[in-house]
Amino acid sequence: MLVGFIVNPYAGLGGAIGFKGTNEEAIERALSLGYDLIAPRRAVEFLVNLRGGNLRFITGAGLMGEYELAEAGLSSIIERVVGERKSRTSREDTLKAAREMAGYGVDVLVFVGGDGTLKDICEATKGGISVLGVPSGVKVYSGAFAYTPREAARILESYASGRGSLVEAEVLDVDEDLLRRDVFDLRVYGVVKTIRAEGLLQPSKGLSNTLDDDENKLAIARYLFETMEDDAYYILGPGTTVKALRRFVKGELSLLGVDVVYGGAVLLKDTWEKPILDILSRNVKAYIVVSPIGRQGFIFGRGNQQISPRVLRLVGKDNIIVVATWGKIRELEYLRIYTGDEEVDARLRGYYKVLVDYGMYEVKKAI
User: Fold this and answer.
1) Which residue from 67, 88, 123, 247 has the highest number of Cβ atoms inside 10 Å of its Cβ?
2) CATH 3.40.50.10330 fits 2-196, yes or no
Protein backbone atom coordinates (compact mmCIF):
# COMPACT_ATOMS: atom_id res chain seq x y z
CA MET A 1 0.00 0.00 0.00
CA LEU A 2 1.32 3.43 -0.97
CA VAL A 3 0.78 5.95 1.83
CA GLY A 4 1.15 9.70 1.53
CA PHE A 5 2.40 11.25 4.77
CA ILE A 6 2.26 14.96 5.63
CA VAL A 7 3.10 16.52 8.98
CA ASN A 8 2.06 20.09 9.71
CA PRO A 9 4.90 20.65 12.21
CA TYR A 10 3.30 23.68 13.87
CA ALA A 11 -0.19 22.22 14.34
CA GLY A 12 -1.50 22.61 17.88
CA LEU A 13 1.27 24.97 18.96
CA GLY A 14 -1.15 27.79 19.75
CA GLY A 15 -3.27 25.82 22.21
CA ALA A 16 -1.32 26.12 25.46
CA ILE A 17 -0.82 29.87 25.00
CA GLY A 18 -4.54 30.51 24.55
CA PHE A 19 -4.75 30.93 20.78
CA LYS A 20 -7.78 29.42 19.08
CA GLY A 21 -5.66 28.08 16.22
CA THR A 22 -2.04 28.20 15.09
CA ASN A 23 -1.38 31.16 12.82
CA GLU A 24 1.98 32.88 12.29
CA GLU A 25 1.49 35.05 15.37
CA ALA A 26 0.81 31.99 17.52
CA ILE A 27 3.87 30.19 16.14
CA GLU A 28 6.17 33.14 16.83
CA ARG A 29 4.87 33.63 20.35
CA ALA A 30 4.91 29.97 21.31
CA LEU A 31 8.45 29.47 20.05
CA SER A 32 9.64 32.64 21.79
CA LEU A 33 8.18 31.29 25.05
CA GLY A 34 10.12 28.05 24.66
CA TYR A 35 7.29 25.70 23.69
CA ASP A 36 8.30 22.59 21.75
CA LEU A 37 6.63 21.45 18.55
CA ILE A 38 3.76 19.05 19.20
CA ALA A 39 2.95 17.56 15.80
CA PRO A 40 6.33 15.85 15.19
CA ARG A 41 5.94 13.99 18.51
CA ARG A 42 2.43 12.89 17.56
CA ALA A 43 3.73 11.79 14.15
CA VAL A 44 6.44 9.62 15.70
CA GLU A 45 3.92 8.14 18.15
CA PHE A 46 1.78 7.13 15.17
CA LEU A 47 4.69 5.68 13.22
CA VAL A 48 6.27 3.60 16.00
CA ASN A 49 2.89 1.95 16.62
CA LEU A 50 2.64 0.59 13.08
CA ARG A 51 3.07 -3.13 13.59
CA GLY A 52 2.67 -4.59 10.13
CA GLY A 53 1.27 -4.22 6.68
CA ASN A 54 3.11 -3.86 3.39
CA LEU A 55 3.44 -0.08 3.59
CA ARG A 56 5.47 2.28 1.43
CA PHE A 57 5.56 6.04 2.03
CA ILE A 58 5.67 9.17 -0.05
CA THR A 59 6.41 11.85 2.50
CA GLY A 60 6.90 15.55 2.88
CA ALA A 61 10.49 16.75 3.17
CA GLY A 62 12.21 17.50 6.48
CA LEU A 63 9.85 18.23 9.36
CA MET A 64 6.86 17.53 7.12
CA GLY A 65 7.34 13.76 7.51
CA GLU A 66 10.82 12.73 6.39
CA TYR A 67 12.50 13.39 9.75
CA GLU A 68 9.72 11.71 11.72
CA LEU A 69 9.92 8.55 9.59
CA ALA A 70 13.66 8.51 10.17
CA GLU A 71 13.23 8.92 13.94
CA ALA A 72 10.79 6.00 13.94
CA GLY A 73 13.33 3.85 12.09
CA LEU A 74 11.27 3.70 8.90
CA SER A 75 13.51 5.48 6.40
CA SER A 76 13.89 2.23 4.44
CA ILE A 77 10.21 2.28 3.38
CA ILE A 78 10.27 5.86 2.05
CA GLU A 79 9.70 5.59 -1.70
CA ARG A 80 9.80 9.31 -2.46
CA VAL A 81 10.27 12.65 -0.68
CA VAL A 82 8.32 15.62 -2.03
CA GLY A 83 9.09 19.29 -1.49
CA GLU A 84 12.23 20.70 0.05
CA ARG A 85 13.59 20.78 3.56
CA LYS A 86 12.83 24.10 5.24
CA SER A 87 13.39 25.55 8.70
CA ARG A 88 9.89 27.07 8.56
CA THR A 89 7.06 25.53 6.57
CA SER A 90 3.79 27.12 5.52
CA ARG A 91 0.28 26.32 4.33
CA GLU A 92 1.57 26.50 0.75
CA ASP A 93 3.98 23.64 1.46
CA THR A 94 1.06 21.49 2.65
CA LEU A 95 -0.99 22.32 -0.45
CA LYS A 96 1.90 21.54 -2.78
CA ALA A 97 2.81 18.26 -1.05
CA ALA A 98 -0.82 17.07 -1.10
CA ARG A 99 -1.17 17.83 -4.81
CA GLU A 100 2.03 15.92 -5.62
CA MET A 101 0.98 12.92 -3.55
CA ALA A 102 -2.38 12.81 -5.26
CA GLY A 103 -0.57 12.86 -8.58
CA TYR A 104 1.56 9.88 -7.56
CA GLY A 105 -1.60 7.90 -6.83
CA VAL A 106 -1.29 7.25 -3.11
CA ASP A 107 -3.86 4.84 -1.69
CA VAL A 108 -4.41 7.02 1.38
CA LEU A 109 -2.98 10.31 2.61
CA VAL A 110 -2.20 10.31 6.34
CA PHE A 111 -1.69 13.76 7.82
CA VAL A 112 -0.74 15.06 11.25
CA GLY A 113 -2.53 18.27 12.15
CA GLY A 114 -5.97 19.66 12.87
CA ASP A 115 -9.06 20.84 11.05
CA GLY A 116 -7.17 23.58 9.21
CA THR A 117 -4.67 21.07 7.82
CA LEU A 118 -7.51 18.78 6.70
CA LYS A 119 -9.24 21.70 4.99
CA ASP A 120 -6.02 22.55 3.12
CA ILE A 121 -5.56 18.95 1.96
CA CYS A 122 -9.17 18.84 0.78
CA GLU A 123 -8.64 22.02 -1.18
CA ALA A 124 -5.45 20.68 -2.77
CA THR A 125 -6.80 17.27 -3.74
CA LYS A 126 -10.43 18.26 -4.47
CA GLY A 127 -11.48 15.40 -2.20
CA GLY A 128 -10.14 12.92 -4.72
CA ILE A 129 -8.12 10.73 -2.36
CA SER A 130 -8.85 9.04 0.95
CA VAL A 131 -7.40 10.68 4.05
CA LEU A 132 -6.73 9.77 7.67
CA GLY A 133 -5.99 12.36 10.35
CA VAL A 134 -3.55 11.92 13.23
CA PRO A 135 -4.84 14.48 15.76
CA SER A 136 -2.50 17.33 16.66
CA GLY A 137 -4.42 20.57 16.12
CA VAL A 138 -5.94 23.03 18.55
CA LYS A 139 -9.27 22.18 16.91
CA VAL A 140 -10.03 18.60 15.86
CA TYR A 141 -13.76 18.70 15.16
CA SER A 142 -13.90 16.87 11.81
CA GLY A 143 -14.78 13.22 11.38
CA ALA A 144 -11.64 12.13 9.50
CA PHE A 145 -9.43 11.81 12.59
CA ALA A 146 -8.53 8.87 14.75
CA TYR A 147 -9.05 9.42 18.46
CA THR A 148 -5.27 9.21 19.11
CA PRO A 149 -2.06 8.63 17.10
CA ARG A 150 -1.92 5.01 18.29
CA GLU A 151 -5.45 4.39 17.08
CA ALA A 152 -4.56 6.02 13.75
CA ALA A 153 -1.85 3.36 13.39
CA ARG A 154 -4.39 0.61 14.07
CA ILE A 155 -6.80 2.08 11.51
CA LEU A 156 -4.11 2.18 8.80
CA GLU A 157 -3.05 -1.39 9.61
CA SER A 158 -6.66 -2.56 9.35
CA TYR A 159 -7.05 -0.91 5.97
CA ALA A 160 -3.76 -2.34 4.68
CA SER A 161 -4.89 -5.83 5.68
CA GLY A 162 -8.30 -5.45 4.04
CA ARG A 163 -10.31 -5.09 7.25
CA GLY A 164 -11.04 -1.35 7.23
CA SER A 165 -13.67 0.31 5.05
CA LEU A 166 -14.01 3.70 3.40
CA VAL A 167 -16.68 6.07 4.68
CA GLU A 168 -17.57 9.71 4.14
CA ALA A 169 -16.73 12.22 6.86
CA GLU A 170 -17.52 15.90 7.31
CA VAL A 171 -14.75 18.49 7.10
CA LEU A 172 -15.48 21.02 9.85
CA ASP A 173 -13.60 24.17 10.82
CA VAL A 174 -14.26 27.43 12.58
CA ASP A 175 -13.57 31.00 11.56
CA GLU A 176 -10.53 31.70 13.77
CA ASP A 177 -10.91 35.48 13.55
CA LEU A 178 -14.47 35.21 14.88
CA LEU A 179 -13.33 32.63 17.43
CA ARG A 180 -10.82 35.09 18.87
CA ARG A 181 -13.77 37.45 19.34
CA ASP A 182 -15.65 34.69 21.21
CA VAL A 183 -17.99 33.87 18.33
CA PHE A 184 -18.22 30.15 17.59
CA ASP A 185 -18.95 29.73 13.87
CA LEU A 186 -18.47 26.04 13.06
CA ARG A 187 -19.06 25.24 9.41
CA VAL A 188 -19.13 22.18 7.20
CA TYR A 189 -16.61 22.80 4.42
CA GLY A 190 -17.06 19.55 2.57
CA VAL A 191 -16.92 15.79 2.72
CA VAL A 192 -13.92 13.46 2.41
CA LYS A 193 -13.42 9.74 2.23
CA THR A 194 -11.69 8.32 5.27
CA ILE A 195 -11.04 4.90 6.82
CA ARG A 196 -13.28 3.38 9.43
CA ALA A 197 -12.13 0.66 11.79
CA GLU A 198 -14.56 -0.21 14.54
CA GLY A 199 -14.37 2.18 17.50
CA LEU A 200 -11.17 3.95 16.40
CA LEU A 201 -12.38 6.80 14.17
CA GLN A 202 -13.94 9.77 15.91
CA PRO A 203 -17.26 11.27 14.77
CA SER A 204 -17.44 14.93 13.87
CA LYS A 205 -18.39 17.33 16.65
CA GLY A 206 -22.12 17.72 17.31
CA LEU A 207 -23.62 20.99 16.05
CA SER A 208 -27.13 21.06 17.49
CA ASN A 209 -28.57 22.85 20.50
CA THR A 210 -32.16 23.04 21.82
CA LEU A 211 -34.17 25.11 24.27
CA ASP A 212 -34.23 22.09 26.57
CA ASP A 213 -30.42 22.06 26.46
CA ASP A 214 -30.34 25.74 27.43
CA GLU A 215 -32.54 25.13 30.47
CA ASN A 216 -30.44 22.09 31.39
CA LYS A 217 -27.23 24.12 31.16
CA LEU A 218 -28.68 26.83 33.39
CA ALA A 219 -29.66 24.25 36.04
CA ILE A 220 -26.15 22.78 35.96
CA ALA A 221 -24.58 26.24 36.27
CA ARG A 222 -26.84 27.24 39.16
CA TYR A 223 -25.94 24.14 41.15
CA LEU A 224 -22.25 24.54 40.36
CA PHE A 225 -22.27 28.17 41.49
CA GLU A 226 -24.19 27.41 44.68
CA THR A 227 -21.69 24.71 45.64
CA MET A 228 -18.53 26.67 44.86
CA GLU A 229 -16.09 27.01 47.76
CA ASP A 230 -15.19 30.59 48.64
CA ASP A 231 -11.49 29.84 49.12
CA ALA A 232 -10.98 27.77 45.96
CA TYR A 233 -9.96 28.70 42.44
CA TYR A 234 -12.10 27.34 39.60
CA ILE A 235 -10.42 26.84 36.22
CA LEU A 236 -13.24 26.83 33.67
CA GLY A 237 -12.85 25.09 30.33
CA PRO A 238 -14.53 26.34 27.14
CA GLY A 239 -18.05 25.65 25.95
CA THR A 240 -21.61 26.74 26.52
CA THR A 241 -22.35 24.25 29.32
CA VAL A 242 -19.52 25.44 31.56
CA LYS A 243 -19.92 29.08 30.58
CA ALA A 244 -23.59 29.15 31.55
CA LEU A 245 -21.98 30.26 34.82
CA ARG A 246 -21.85 33.75 33.28
CA ARG A 247 -25.41 34.17 34.59
CA PHE A 248 -24.16 33.88 38.18
CA VAL A 249 -20.55 34.99 38.58
CA LYS A 250 -19.37 38.60 38.81
CA GLY A 251 -17.52 39.73 35.72
CA GLU A 252 -17.42 38.54 32.14
CA LEU A 253 -16.49 35.01 31.09
CA SER A 254 -15.21 34.07 27.67
CA LEU A 255 -17.27 31.49 25.83
CA LEU A 256 -14.48 29.64 24.07
CA GLY A 257 -11.42 30.31 26.21
CA VAL A 258 -10.26 29.17 29.63
CA ASP A 259 -11.18 31.41 32.57
CA VAL A 260 -10.41 31.42 36.29
CA VAL A 261 -13.02 32.27 38.94
CA TYR A 262 -12.32 32.96 42.62
CA GLY A 263 -14.77 34.03 45.30
CA GLY A 264 -17.64 34.07 42.82
CA ALA A 265 -15.89 36.59 40.54
CA VAL A 266 -13.89 36.30 37.33
CA LEU A 267 -10.18 36.57 38.13
CA LEU A 268 -8.74 35.74 34.70
CA LYS A 269 -10.57 35.79 31.37
CA ASP A 270 -9.43 33.84 28.30
CA THR A 271 -6.14 32.98 29.93
CA TRP A 272 -3.33 30.55 29.08
CA GLU A 273 -1.08 28.00 30.74
CA LYS A 274 1.46 30.21 32.53
CA PRO A 275 -0.95 32.42 34.54
CA ILE A 276 -2.76 29.26 35.64
CA LEU A 277 0.52 27.67 36.72
CA ASP A 278 1.42 30.86 38.60
CA ILE A 279 -1.76 30.53 40.67
CA LEU A 280 -1.26 26.81 41.31
CA SER A 281 2.37 27.33 42.35
CA ARG A 282 1.08 29.05 45.52
CA ASN A 283 -0.25 25.67 46.72
CA VAL A 284 -3.88 26.80 46.66
CA LYS A 285 -7.05 24.75 46.44
CA ALA A 286 -8.22 24.55 42.84
CA TYR A 287 -10.79 22.75 40.73
CA ILE A 288 -11.05 22.28 36.97
CA VAL A 289 -14.51 22.40 35.39
CA VAL A 290 -14.86 20.88 31.92
CA SER A 291 -17.51 19.57 29.57
CA PRO A 292 -16.93 16.85 26.94
CA ILE A 293 -16.92 17.70 23.26
CA GLY A 294 -20.24 16.66 21.76
CA ARG A 295 -20.27 13.19 20.14
CA GLN A 296 -16.49 12.83 20.64
CA GLY A 297 -16.31 12.83 24.43
CA PHE A 298 -12.93 14.52 24.95
CA ILE A 299 -12.55 16.37 28.24
CA PHE A 300 -8.82 17.12 27.90
CA GLY A 301 -6.50 17.54 24.94
CA ARG A 302 -8.94 19.03 22.43
CA GLY A 303 -9.73 22.75 22.42
CA ASN A 304 -8.54 23.33 26.01
CA GLN A 305 -4.77 22.80 25.79
CA GLN A 306 -4.30 25.74 28.17
CA ILE A 307 -5.25 23.16 30.81
CA SER A 308 -1.97 21.40 30.11
CA PRO A 309 -0.45 18.24 31.57
CA ARG A 310 1.49 20.45 33.99
CA VAL A 311 -1.75 22.06 35.18
CA LEU A 312 -3.45 18.68 35.47
CA ARG A 313 -0.61 17.24 37.54
CA LEU A 314 -1.01 20.02 40.08
CA VAL A 315 -4.82 19.89 40.31
CA GLY A 316 -5.29 16.11 40.26
CA LYS A 317 -8.15 13.85 39.23
CA ASP A 318 -10.14 14.27 42.46
CA ASN A 319 -10.54 18.00 41.79
CA ILE A 320 -11.87 17.68 38.24
CA ILE A 321 -15.56 18.50 37.81
CA VAL A 322 -17.18 17.23 34.62
CA VAL A 323 -20.50 18.72 33.50
CA ALA A 324 -22.71 17.79 30.56
CA THR A 325 -26.34 18.09 29.51
CA TRP A 326 -28.55 15.03 29.45
CA GLY A 327 -28.52 15.06 25.66
CA LYS A 328 -24.75 15.16 25.40
CA ILE A 329 -23.97 12.54 28.07
CA ARG A 330 -26.46 10.03 26.66
CA GLU A 331 -24.81 10.01 23.25
CA LEU A 332 -21.37 9.25 24.71
CA GLU A 333 -20.17 5.75 25.48
CA TYR A 334 -17.01 7.09 27.14
CA LEU A 335 -15.29 10.28 28.16
CA ARG A 336 -11.89 10.57 26.48
CA ILE A 337 -8.53 12.01 27.50
CA TYR A 338 -5.52 12.53 25.26
CA THR A 339 -3.06 15.24 26.33
CA GLY A 340 0.01 13.67 24.73
CA ASP A 341 1.46 12.93 28.18
CA GLU A 342 0.84 9.24 28.85
CA GLU A 343 1.68 9.47 32.55
CA VAL A 344 -0.88 12.22 33.11
CA ASP A 345 -3.47 10.52 30.92
CA ALA A 346 -3.09 7.28 32.89
CA ARG A 347 -3.64 9.13 36.18
CA LEU A 348 -6.81 10.75 34.88
CA ARG A 349 -8.47 7.70 33.36
CA GLY A 350 -11.24 6.06 35.32
CA TYR A 351 -14.72 6.94 36.47
CA TYR A 352 -16.18 10.44 36.92
CA LYS A 353 -19.42 11.66 38.41
CA VAL A 354 -20.79 13.93 35.69
CA LEU A 355 -23.07 16.75 36.80
CA VAL A 356 -26.03 16.50 34.41
CA ASP A 357 -28.70 18.64 36.10
CA TYR A 358 -29.32 20.49 39.36
CA GLY A 359 -27.73 18.17 41.94
CA MET A 360 -27.98 15.14 39.62
CA TYR A 361 -25.08 13.00 38.42
CA GLU A 362 -24.34 10.16 36.04
CA VAL A 363 -21.16 8.08 36.20
CA LYS A 364 -19.03 7.83 33.07
CA LYS A 365 -15.74 6.12 32.42
CA ALA A 366 -12.88 8.14 30.93
CA ILE A 367 -10.48 6.25 28.67
Assistant:
1) 67
2) yes
